[in-house]
Write a structure and sequence with these properties.
It contains twelve helices and no strands. It is mainly alpha-helical and 332 residues long.
Length: 332
């Protein structure tokens, strides 16, 4: 499908019915595989960053730096299109809808990092599959996509998996570390909020990316990440003002508490964000959720290898239920 004008022309706003993947299928599959491993490793590296059971750096700082990195990469990828096709600056009203997912992602990315101290990596990934539930309902509500009988059954199994894993995690005994299946009541509340907002953000982002399909995805990303930088920059500034009351000398140090693992998270999450944008524009949230669900396998295997995770019956039951739910949800 050819471009109807220079990248960024506001008139190309009507949704199209056919979305053509911009790369060949081999590269597309490779991108999905890389995205799966990146997504699955996030919580592992987050736990490796912990010092005495807490995150030693500001989550707002890490997310702000990640947004800046995504913006730089997007600008670099957009420049060849500008040299080839020219550039028309989109109006503020055209860019404004991208502020909505930026707000949602700002909240969710921060809460995602804070959740790491409330549960082990494998539990985080298994319970994270509940975002399929919120996405399915929002797809039905916003995009009017019907839910089949198989998909309703899959959603019921996901709820059962969440209950099983949560019950086992809440009744975990002994020292709670990344090597033991556990979850706190606070963590369950945060996860419920996280999954709902993730579903809302995913559905809305897919809608505006496809509603402006003729606009370059790199320009769309630039608009999204500019709003993200403003929001996360504000969150970081306010957090540092509060932090300054007790630690005046250390306040407003952007990279305070960073380690090599922190930089690995920043770099990998920057590319993960770009991959997710491409999936939502050229495929759908269903493909994004399939990637996230497959990442559950990566996280569990890495947890066993890195943290010597001891699996319990409740977790294994939940794991099997999620796999069955995935099969049913994506069954044609």
């Amino acid at each position: 499908m050819g471009r109807t004008g220079p990248p960024g022309l506001p008139e190309a706003t009507k949704p199209v019915n056919i979305y053509v993947k911009p790369v060949n299928m081999c590269l597309w599959r490779l991108m999905l595989i890389v995205g799966t491993f990146i997504y699955g490793s996030y919580t592992i590296f987050a736990h490796l960053c912990e010092v005495d059971g807490r995150i030693p750096f500001s989550s707002a700082s890490m997310i702000l730096v990640t947004e800046v990195m995504k913006l730089i990469i997007s600008i670099c990828m957009f420049m060849p299109e500008v040299r080839r096709d020219g550039f028309t600056m989109p109006s503020f009203m055209y860019a404004l809808p991208f502020s909505v997912p930026a707000i949602l992602y700002c909240f969710n990315n921060n809460i995602s990092m804070q959740m790491q101290t409330q549960m082990d990596p494998a539990t985080y990934q298994v319970l994270g599959n509940l975002k399929i539930l919120s996405t399915a309902f929002l797809y039905r509500l916003i995009i009017k996509r019907p839910i089949s009988g198989f998909q309703w059954s899959a959603l019921a199994l996901l709820v059962a998996a969440g209950v099983s894993n949560s019950y086992g995690g809440l009744h975990a005994k002994g020292i709670q570390t990344a090597g033991t299946i556990h979850v706190t009541l606070k963590g369950l509340g945060m996860m419920a909020m996280y999954c709902f907002i993730s579903g809302l953000a995913g559905v809305y982002t897919e809608y505006i990316l496809k509603d402006r399909y003729q606009t370059s995805i790199h320009l769309q990303n630039i608009m999204l990440y500019l709003f993200g930088i403003i929001l996360n920059g504000g969150v970081w500034f306010l957090a540092e003002v509060k932090y300054q009351d007790d630690n005046k000398d250390l306040a407003f140090h952007l990279f305070r508490g960073y380690s090599s693992y922190t930089w690995i998270i920043i770099i990998t999450q920057a590319f993960c964000g770009l991959i997710m944008s491409a999936i939502m524009k050229h495929s759908s949230n269903i493909a994004r959720l399939f990637l996230i669900s497959c990442a559950m396998l990566v996280t569990t295997i890495l947890s066993v290898l890195v943290f010597n995770l001891q699996l319990n019956l409740y977790f294994c039951s939940a794991f099997v239920l999620v796999l069955i739910a995935l099969y049913l949800y994506h069954k044609k």
